[in-house]
Amino acid sequence: MRLYEYEGKQLFKRYNIPTPNSVVVGDFSELDKVVYPVVLKGQVFIGRRGKAGAIQFANSKKEAETKIKELLGRVIHGYEVTKVLVEEKVEIDREFYLSATIDRTKHKPLLIVSSEGGMEIEEIAKKPDAIIKHYLEIGERVEPYLGRSIARKMEFKGDAMLKVGNIIVALYNLFLDYDCKLVEINPLVLTADGKIIALDSKVDLDEDAMYRHKELMQMGIEARHEIGELTKREKIAKKAGIPYVDLDGDIGVFPGGAGFGIASIDLIKHFGGNPANFMDSGGAPTQERLRLMIGLLMDNPKVKVIFGARFGGISRCDDWAKAVVQYVLENRPQKPMIMRMAGNMEEEGRKIFEEAIKEHSELFKNIKVYKFDTPIEEVIKEAIKESI
């Protein structure tokens, strides 16, 4: 679960990691609290915000107000700017990179540092010897001497080495204390007047461990989407307890359980289509729940066709059929549905569809339900064809 930059910096301050003086704008009167010139940072869950236009500069309160109004409400790579961090502008002498994360191949915590940093860190990482890695054992803390040793490798000397060593220790303590997946400072800067400052923050928490950190809620930090803000449909699904994630495609996926939901996405991609979502409608969902799931797909303007599949086990095909039929009768959807049904109570489910199609042929003209003898691959191929 990713934090906004300003939230990450709130945690930094708890660990005495230096950050620029700043305010989060909710009321323009707060602009009286900063010294100009300032940097205006739209708070969204993306990297490279400068290149996306989410970072601006202002030399006066009037200029700051104008640019903040332009930033608020902007949608940047799918994320709306609802808050702006107003931060003192510092004169940068050098930029560095510092992070703590988990190496999932070696199953160990890892410190990653570099004597270079900034927006081009991905390119910097390609240089030989540009990145320094230090592995730790699970539960191990970074002792002060190790922090200083790593700072020395980053080309710091004297008082600066001591300061950066302390920041490395503090950053790793934060990483462990809050059950983080990632804590990153990019860039950590040496200013023209010799200060060491964390100019940016990136903190990813383990949402499943948040119950251990009640103070986060007191700071206004609550569980949210893993990689960003929830979309409107994801919020509806989460409130209803439906596992659902929006993707970028145009084929709505209405599968059975989570396993087949993932397999459906893979098959659609394999045959050249673009899935619009992940969804888990397994178990024994209620009629209301099933209809809500269909509605999420029908309400997505990107979705051109819905691929559905029910392998009846614990969940019954007749319940699935009833939900689809009732949704169609109540909402008269225009998007085609290409589906396959097999398993528990399949014949009963098929009769429900046949009677509905017979009585309301016009409403069901774009709805096809195949039997078990039609390979699922062929059903997916037909759905892809409908989306073109």
Tell me how many strands there are.
Answer: 18
Q: Please summarize the sheet with the most strands.
A: 6 strands, antiparallel
* Low-pLDDT windows of residues: none
Helical content (DSSP H or I, runs of 4+): 25-40%
What is the CATH homology-level superfamily of the largest domain?
A: Succinyl-CoA synthetase domains
Give the total of domains: 3
From the coordinates shown, what is the CATH architecture of the largest domain? 3-Layer(aba) Sandwich
Map the helices and strands.
Layout: H1 5-14, E1 22-25, E2 38-42, E3 55-58, H2 61-71, E4 75-76, E5 79-80, E6 84-88, E7 92-103, E8 108-114, H3 121-124, E9 131-135, H4 144-153, H5 158-177, E10 180-191, E11 196-198, E12 202-205, H6 214-218, H7 232-240, E13 244-246, E14 251-254, H8 258-270, E15 277-279, H9 287-298, E16 305-312, H10 317-331, E17 337-343, H11 346-359, E18 367-370, H12 376-387
Parallel strand pairs: 14-16, 16-17, 17-18
Antiparallel strand pairs: 1-6, 2-3, 2-6, 4-5, 7-8, 7-10, 8-9, 10-11, 10-12, 13-15
Helix pairs in contact: 4-5, 7-9, 9-10, 10-11
Report on the structure:
By secondary structure, the chain is of the alpha+beta class. It is built from 12 helices and 18 strands. The strands form 5 sheets. Strands 7, 8, 9, 10, 11 and 12 form a 6-stranded antiparallel beta sheet that branches. It has a 4-stranded antiparallel beta sheet with strand order 1-6-2-3, with helices on one face. Strand 10 and strand 11 form a beta hairpin. Helix 7 (232-240) packs antiparallel against helix 9. It is elongated. 36% of the residues are buried.
